[in-house]
UniProtKB/TrEMBL annotation:
Residues 193-281 form the BRCT domain. It comes from the Eukaryota. This is Cell fusion protein cfr1. Residues 105-199 form the Fibronectin type-III domain. It holds the Pfam family fn3_2. Coiled coil: none annotated. Residues 284-419 are annotated as: Disordered. Residues 315-335, 346-378 have a biased composition (Basic and acidic residues). GO terms for biological process: conjugation with cellular fusion; Golgi to plasma membrane transport. GO terms for molecular function: protein dimerization activity. The gene is CHS5. GO terms for cellular component: exomer complex; trans-Golgi network.
């Protein structure tokens, strides 16, 4: 009877086969199901289908006063209009997400050269455009090799590379890594300047008198350099005559050479870039030429005669002396010879076996004014030139032992003193 009632109303009573009914343009799916209430709990109610299937149904959606054994009819239909509205709402949300996060992508960095000198290059680039991506890193590459990462890439838009070779070509490019992919900048080719190319000099002026500043400006224009306001990353030299002021402090903090105006004049005069060591502001300025104090010449070692210690006076040759002086010197020499012989008696006995010949030679030295008797001039008592050569060797050893000076051709004397 329930099936007939459902068919009379135009609905299908089967829980298995749905029936479509077309009303206007939209197709509506409706299904009427009769279920028997089984167990009723506070949260979930168990319903039984005609073919003995169990369905758990929320108790809150059932009519009140439902108990076990009650029969309920559930009408299920498709709400196409609401589906269309929800789909349009979802599409709109997807469009907003795409426009916010997917329409724009990170752009590649734009790199360019700001300034180049003989040994350094200043590079700059536009602010990084990340869109909605996250930044991973920004690195600088030189000649295809990684030169290093850029610190604080979102705040820094320039960098300076120093220590380059003079008149050499280099290639630089940036690599941007983000969560949306990797972007590479175009390669920039830079050639460092020659030593005679002064166009790369960038000067920031400090405290200067009016006349000096005007002359400096003219000199900078003549050499092809440039003057900029304030200390910047491309400032190569800071020119001033006084070490004070905010600009001077910033130049010192950035390790920029602080030089005097004379450095620019020297570069212009020489036609090439010069070192700044002699032109530092705190360096000693060259004063007027002063008379050089000529140091007394140091006498050669051969001409400087040492003074003998007390008790061992050195004998010098005297040319014009009378017979009395010669006799006095001979006596004095004899006394010194005897005292020396007593002090070194054991050694003298071994080295000087002929004291008579030594005395004879000493007298000959005083009278004839010669240091040594010519070899082979007179035969010795021991016979011939052999005895003479032996005497010469004894004399050298004796002079060395007694501490007496050895004669030199120019009349100077040397000795070695044993204490």
């Amino acid at each position: 009877m329930l099936r007939d009632k459902i068919q009379d109303s135009g609905y299908m009573a089967s829980s298995k086969t749905p029936q479509f009914e077309q009303r206007g343009v939209a197709k509506v799916l409706r299904m009427l199901v009769s279920l028997t209430v089984g167990k009723v709990d506070a949260g979930v109610t168990v319903l039984l289908t005609p073919d003995k299937r169990l369905i758990e149904f929320p108790s809150i959606l059932l009519p009140p006063n439902i108990s076990s054994g009650s029969i309920v009819d559930i009408n299920v239909s498709q709400n196409s209009s609401k589906e269309t509205a929800e789909e349009q709402k979802f599409r709109a949300l997807q469009d907003r997400i795409f426009n916010c996060f997917g329409a724009s992508e990170p752009s590649a960095p734009v790199l360019r050269c700001r300034n180049a000198t003989q040994t350094s290059v200043v590079l700059e680039w536009d602010p990084i455009e990340l869109a909605t991506a996250d930044l991973i890193s920004l690195s600088l590459y030189r000649n295809g090799n990684k030169a290093g990462p850029i610190p604080r890439p979102l705040q820094m838009h320039s960098t300076k590379i120093s220590g380059l070779a003079v008149d050499t070509e280099y290639t630089f490019h940036l690599v941007l890594r983000t969560s949306a992919g990797t972007r590479l900048s175009d390669k920039v080719t830079v050639r460092t300047h020659k030593m005679t190319d002064l166009s790369g000099i960038t000067i920031t002026t400090g405290i200067l008198p009016g006349a000096i500043k005007e002359n400096l400006t003219q000199a900078v224009e003549r050499i092809g350099a440039k003057i900029v306001d304030g200390v910047r990353i491309d400032t190569t030299h800071f020119v001033t005559t006084e070490g004070r002021g905010t600009a001077w402090e910033k130049a010192v903090e950035n390790n920029i050479p602080v030089v005097r105006p004379e450095w620019v004049d020297a570069c212009e005069k020489n036609g090439r870039i010069l070192g700044v060591t002699k032109f530092y502001l705190d360096a000693m300025r060259p004063g007027p030429p002063s008379e050089e104090q000529v140091a007394p010449p140091v006498p050669p070692k051969e001409e400087a005669a040492r003074e003998p210690p007390a008790g061992q006076g050195s004998k010098t040759e005297e040319s014009d002396k009378g017979a009395d002086d010669a006799a006095a010197k001979e006596d004095k020499a004899s006394e010194e010879q005897s005292s020396d012989d007593d002090a070194a008696e054991p050694e003298q006995k071994a080295k000087s076996p002929l004291p008579d010949e030594q005395k004879m030679r000493l007298e000959d030295m005083e009278e004839q004014k010669v240091a040594l008797r010519p070899r082979g001039a007179e035969p010795s008592e021991d016979g011939g030139a052999d005895g003479e050569q032996k005497d010469g060797e004894d004399e050298d050893e004796e002079g060395e032992t007694n501490g007496k000076p050895a004669a030199t051709p120019d009349g100077a004397s040397f000795q070695e003193v044993e204490l």
